[in-house]
Design a protein that fits this description.
Number of helices: 22
Bound molecules: adenosine-5'-triphosphate
Shape: globular
Structural class: alpha/beta
Largest sheet: 5 strands, mixed
CATH superfamily of the largest domain: P-loop containing nucleotide triphosphate hydrolases
Helix content: 40-55%
Strand order of the largest sheet: 3-2-1-5-4
Length: about 475
């Protein structure tokens, strides 16, 4: 056999039996095999997270299976979509159809569940926030797959995995997506009962129901749901009776073909405080990572937030690009911290926001967020900190050496100079051994690009930013 479509279908089918339905549907089913220009076979995963999982847990076995089937003795490599520079349409990712063929791309069919029953009266759950809708959610590289899946779930799509489990670090949009799904699903089916609650609320309501001896009413209220969304599932960890109740709620709803959407700060199998049987049920559908935002997504979210504040009349006009960039670069944490910084700037600058320059922004944010003017960071300090971080000498960064181990830290240092000082590209170039401004520009762009693709670079930049800020 030499046709990659057929080999992939066969190899993936065998792998499915070996790694189990949960892992298969999370990491293998949404992936596709592509043949690049040089004939190299590449398994393209939707996210960097899925790529790392496949690399660690399945690639060796996948290659064994592939080699056993392929008459051409080829090997599979694995990359994520961002590295391939293309995104298959969302409909192909979770369409619930037979294998979709697009050029030389093959994607696996998705599992299907029975369509939900209509009929129950709509119940709007407490705790939903009106502003958290698909309209206000900004798409970026780290959340495109999650957003596509969320839209499918909200549309009550038949090819819907059950449960869908969104996971990722705090503050990058899981609650936003669950809210958006709930609003949209309810809008599309006003008669359906859509129930959203946090795991903490699940826990406290259940405990109260046990004390009041009204657990039957509690069970009925959840089991009548056509769609149940539970946010921050990690908080049920450690409470045996609540976990048992959650498990029986989930199994009852899934058996009835009702939709379940969950979120947590980790993938199901990493929730070590959760009892193994519940964990395996949580992992039995689709695990969908929501990854940390890159700089361009943060900029878009900050811009969005300012527009929303302008619509509310809190600020007027637009904000200068360099002000927005400064705001994003001085807020290395999650979207939540970024929103806090935008709100703070809006509150202290008010109507003056649109006329603010960089220096004034620095001063305002410095005193508002730190209780004093922001500390100035110098080029020299950045060079020393970067050199130390990569166990180099400051002179190496200024030297002519072009080996990757020196060139990359040099580019990171240039990037940090652009972010944390007000120096121009030519000025930075002069301070890096008299380099041309185009070299600096290239270095800064390269690091921006790599931060979106390479977790290690993103972590290095974040750690250095923290060190520089003291
Ligand atoms: N892609 C996005 N577009 C617009 N706003 C976003 C986006 N991602 C996050 N936010 C905003 O950032 C804030 C934090 O997001 P959210 O509460 O959804 O995070 P989370 O992942 O659920 O965090 P936690 O695990 O702490 O509950 C929210 O105000 C949300 O609206």
């Amino acid at each position: 056999m030499t046709d990659p479509d057929r080999i992939w279908t066969e190899a993936a089918g065998r792998l499915r039996g070996e790694i189990g339905e949960g892992a298969f549907s999370s990491y293998i089913a949404p992936s596709a095999v592509r043949v690049d220009g040089s004939g190299q076979l590449i398994l393209v995963t939707p996210t960097a997270y899925a790529r790392d999982w496949v690399r660690k847990n399945a690639l060796r076995r996948m290659n064994e299976l592939w080699l056993g089937l392929d008459g051409l003795n080829r090997r599979l490599d694995v990359r994520c979509r961002a590295e391939m520079g293309s995104t298959p349409p969302a409909s192909q990712v979770a369409a619930g159809r037979a294998p979709a063929h697009s050029g030389n791309v093959v994607s696996m069919p998705m599992a299907t569940v029975a369509p939900v029953a209509d009929g129950a009266r709509a119940v709007r759950a407490a705790g939903l926030q009106e502003r958290l809708t698909f309209d206000s959610f900004v798409e970026g590289q780290g959340n495109a797959f999650a957003l596509a899946i969320a839209r499918q779930a909200a549309a009550w799509a038949d090819g819907h995995f059950n449960p869908i489990f969104f996971c990722g670090p705090y503050g990058y949009g899981k609650t936003h997506l669950l809210n958006a799904i709930a609003w949209e699903a309810q809008r599309l089916r006003p008669d359906a009962k859509v129930v959203y609650l946090t795991a903490e609320r699940f826990l406290s309501t259940f405990v109260r129901a046990m004390q009041d001896r009204s657990t039957a009413a509690f069970k009925d209220s959840l089991r009548g749901a056509d769609m149940l969304l539970i946010d921050d599932v990690q908080f049920v960890g450690g409470k045996a009776s609540t976990q048992e109740e959650l498990l029986s709620t989930l199994t009852a709803l899934i058996e009835d073909g009702k939709k379940i959407v969950l979120s947590a700060d980790k993938p199901p199998m990493a929730l070590t405080e959760v009892e193994p049987r519940l964990r395996s049920h949580l992992a039995s559908g689709l695990t969908c990572p929501v990854e940390p935002a890159d700089r361009s997504l943060k900029l878009a979210v900050a811009r969005n937030r300012i527009e929303a504040l302008a619509r509310l009349g809190v600020v007027s006009g637009e904000v200068r690009a360099e002000v927005l960039e400064h705001l994003v670069d001085r807020t290395p944490g999650s979207m939540r911290e970024l929103e806090g910084a935008v709100n703070t700037l809006a509150a202290v600058a008010g109507a003056r926001l649109s006329t603010l320059g960089l220096d004034e922004t620095q001063a305002l944010l410095g005193s508002a967020l730190r209780g004093g003017p922001e500390r100035r960071i110098t080029v020299d300090e950045i060079q020393k900190t970067v050199a130390e971080h990569f166990t180099l000498k400051q002179a190496d960064l200024l030297s002519e050496r072009r080996t990757r181990s020196v060139a990359r830290p040099r580019q990171i240092a240039m990037y940090l100079c652009k972010q944390h000082t007000t120096r121009s590209y030519p000025d930075i170039g002069r301070r890096f051994g008299g380099r041309d401004h185009t070299t600096v520009l290239h270095g800064v762009r390269k690091i921006e690009e790599l931060m979106a693709q390479d977790d290690q670079i993103a972590r290095d930049v974040e750690a250095l930013t923290r060190k520089l800020r003291g």
